[in-house]
Amino acid sequence: MWWLLACVDPVVEDTAWERGPNPHGLDDQLRLNHVQAEGSHNSTHIEPDAPVDDSHRYTHAPLGDQLDQQGVRQVELDLHLTEDGTWQIFHLPVVDAETTCLELVDCLQDLKDWSNAAEWGLPIMVWMEPKDDVDHMVEGLQAIEEYDTLEETILSVWPRERILTPDDVRGDHADLPTALAEDGWPTLGEVRGKVVFAMLDAGAHREAYIEGAPALEGRLLFVDSSSMEDPYAATFKDGGHEDTRTWSAAGFLVTVNAGSLKNTPEQNSAEVEAAFDAGAHFVATDFPDNIEIPGGTPARCHVLTAPTECTSQDIEGL
């Protein structure tokens, strides 16, 4: 069955990843959910020559520059499947298809190159959003109806041991919420230099992905959750401040979009800060170069869950 592919890794050479001593002193105490960091929305987007909508009027730096220069630790990749079986990354076909990184393998390699160079950097949170609503109407693209080649593509770049998967978090527990309540997320020492993939969909794609694996057994990706009681619940994408506070206090990872191209920079900064204050772990924007997390280096300790002895330098002092 296709979903068992996550358990069988292609051979991936990872000789480029060599690390010196870990400079972070609390890595055996701090956990992944003790972190707050900046993210980007539609992370490979380039403004088209003739935008059909004002919401398309922004351009992101290449992924490596976002990570290295802008402090981004969460990205969002819009997935499209070609008729020849390869995965591409762009927002929408025809009307908003300009991208800094077209082939998924190249995008994944850009992320891995930064992670290799950062050595003890934070894990990268990668939301992958199937955007195939009209792809079947576009020459060269097809609707996404299976996910085996997606997992194969991921494993062709990122070896299994550098991916934090649902199995790693769930352990011997029956489901992910129970595992998080009893054991929590892994420590930062266990996840630095890794990547966390999650599917950004709460409809047909998610239901197809969890078929036969209600607690994401054998899967590479986490998924966007609808309820804290879902057996697959571990990561949430978007919600009001009250939901964000509730989810993060219960130990789930929360990503929130904030800001608008219609706002002033001051308004956007206020929205981002409010999302962090509500407990978001990652706050994604279309303009990460204009956002700075107060007290971050560039990430910081979570305002609700991190232990009092935590400092931003403990989270990431590269």
Textual characterization of the structure:
This protein is of the alpha/beta class. It contains ten helices and eleven strands. Strands 1, 2, 3, 4, 5, 6, 7, 8, 9, 10 and 11 form an eleven-stranded mixed beta sheet that branches. Helix 2 (104-118) runs parallel beside helix 3. The longest helix has 15 residues, at 104-118.
Brief write-up:
Helix content is 26%, strand content 16%. With 318 residues, the protein is of the alpha/beta class.
Which characteristics define this entry?
single chain, 318 residues, alpha/beta, 11-stranded mixed sheet, 11 strands, 26% helix, globular, disordered N terminus
Topology:
Layout lengths: L34 E6 L22 H7 L2 E11 L4 E3 L14 H15 L5 E7 L10 E2 L5 H10 L8 H5 L5 H7 L5 H4 L3 E5 L4 H7 L11 E2 L11 E3 L3 H9 L3 E5 L7 H14 L3 E4 L14 E2 L10 H4 L3
Parallel strand pairs: 1-2, 1-10, 2-4, 4-6, 6-7, 8-9, 9-10
Antiparallel strand pairs: 1-11, 2-3, 2-5
Helix pairs in contact: 1-2, 2-3
Residue stretches low in confidence (pLDDT < 50, at least 5 long) are 1-11
The sequence of SSEs as H and E is: EHEEHEEHHHHEHEEHEHEEH
Question: How would the global form be characterised?
Answer: globular
Fraction of residues in helix: 25-40%
The largest sheet, given as strand count, sense and whether it forms a barrel, is:
11 strands, mixed
Per DSSP, the total helix count is 10
